[in-house]
Design brief:
The chain is an alpha/beta fold. It has 12 helices and 9 strands. Strand 2 and strand 3 form a beta hairpin. It starts with a strand and ends in a 17-residue tail after the last helix. The model is unreliable at 1-31 and 348-354 (pLDDT under 50).
Length: 354
Amino acid sequence: MAFVRSMWPVGLVVLLWGLAPVARAAPEASADDAAAPAVSSTLLEIGPGADLPVYVSRDWSVPQPDIERAVIVQHGRARNASDYFETGLKAQAAAGEAGRHTLIVAPQFIDDRDVRVHHVADSVLRFTPEGWEGGGAALAPKPLSSFEALDGVLARLADRRLFPALKDVVVAGHSGGGQVVQRYAILGRGDESLAGRGVAVSFVVANPSSYAYFSAERPWPDIAAHCPGVDDWKYGMQHLPAYAGGRSAADLEAHYVNRDVSVLLGALDVDPNHRVLDKSCMAEAQGPTRWARGHAYMARLRARDRGAPRHALYEIPGVGHDGDAMFKSACGLHVLFGVPGCIAQDETADLGQP
């Protein structure tokens, strides 16, 4: 128990990418050198002597009988959970009445830069700069997976003594946070405690730089052929983290395609040289831009014989790499808060081959 303290054809994708305008977006801050702007003083105990900082819109250590929905907003590489917490609050306000009975939660994964600058308690989990993104183990104080920490967040929400009216939980992320959510939707087990209590769990993946594939095939095979790590986790199914528990790629795919996953793509997120775009060969084998990579991934997923019956793709017109604009869009409000007025892209088109 956790405790609180304080589609389209891929060939068409390539063609349209070449014709699309260059995005003018508010990018996520670079995480190369800077510490996170803040570290939350609210801590969730994941295990004895191991705490996770979280931003939360209400005191969730006491019963919240009117809360019917929880939206978890995951930060990216900049570890700026405070900014994404504000993004969640802005989207909640834009949702109006639909967002009224909603709890906003923003978990935070810090590294040694943040420890030095913000002087956090020794009990706070800290990770390598990239390890937490794919479920890697903490450096200290205990080697708990970042996905175990997300499990702890969901376990808190599954406590019926605190949230007796909870019906829906949405796990959402933009940019680097979208990468985390997509991988957690594959490996994560925290939704099991919620499903057992009749709570629906969905995942929202917005503008990530890359996706985890279930086979070694890639939409841009010429790049993949010269990229030794192309099928390694977090891009593929080789060398999975210990959290995966020995599950096979086939089992993980079967589990993933039956989860409720929405992919949101900004129609203007098409800059192949965006300063925080993943330019590794592992990512480039998935496509030249976030927009192209998202369309290609969904096309490949739908083309596989396992299908993707509960997955939907939404394209946000006029928006580039901007988390606020993505989540406050009509489709963002639809997938986060159930606001009507957004239809997913046609899933019946001929998928073709790259």
